[in-house]
Amino acid sequence: ETVQLQLTSERDPQRHYVKLIGYARGRSFIVTTPTQDGAYLLIRDGQGFVVRMFAGKNIYAFPASVIRAANTPYPHLHLTYPDEVVTRTVRRAERVDVRLIASVDAGTGQPIPAIVENLSISGAGLHSRIQIGNAGTELKLGFKLELDGFARVLSLSAVVRISQPSVTADGQWLTGLEFLEIDPQDHLLLSGFIYR
User: Fold this and answer.
1) Which of 33, 39, 136, 185 has the highest CB neighbour number within 10 Å of its CB?
2) Is 115 exposed, middle or buried (0-12, 13-18, 19+ CB in 10 A)?
């Protein structure tokens, strides 16, 4: 499982993605040490984090501090086991209105510019000047998301569910996409963005 760590220090709001190794109930929560630019970050015992993870249809968050930063047999962290976990259920139909510049790769070799107008965990609605594809067309949707100072360019596999001329914007096409399998890191960022 992918876990997101955010230092509680305001000087470093950046979020780091690590892997959950395991846990000892009531004792510690064990994750890999975060990296940046290919190098392990220097993490000290006692440093505080907000831990977030996605599992099933829920997002979990809790505060934790480093009990022990270990380097052998590989770099990993023992974090305090949570006394209380905040849980939010992700509803499949929840959508937010956005205006995000996007690029669509429908396999033609020519990227199609588009605007993402609404976004959910399960899909997106787009406007474009040309038809992106017919129902059933598989494609890649690329756009940038920013959340709490962390930015990431997402490249999501999707399938066209609806494709029709716009009734409100002449010469424009509306496309409804359903996302296919999403990388856990992308899923966490996407769900955090939507429910923020």
Assistant:
1) 33
2) middle
**What's the pLDDT at 66?**
96
10-residue mean pLDDT series, the chain (196 residues)? 79 76 93 90 92 75 94 94 83 76 90 93 92 91 86 92 75 89 86 82
Query: Beta strand pairing status for 48-55 and 95-105?
Result: unpaired
Burial of 109 (0-12, 13-18, 19+ CB in 10 A): exposed
Q: What is the pTM of this model?
A: 0.58
81: Cα separation from own chain's centroid: 24
- Considering only CA atoms, which of 95, 77, 83, 86 is closest in space to residue 7? 77
Per-residue confidence (pLDDT) for residue 117, from 0 to 100: 93
CA separation, residue 37 to residues 16, 70, 85, 144, 179 (Å): 11, 20, 31, 20, 29
Query: Left if phi > 0, otherwise alpha if psi is -120 to 50, otherwise beta: which for 185?
Result: alpha
129: Cα within 13 Å, side-chain hemisphere: 4
In Å, how far are 17, 29, 60, 174 from 47, measured between CA atoms? Answer: 16, 14, 20, 48
H/E stretch holding 4: strand 2-7
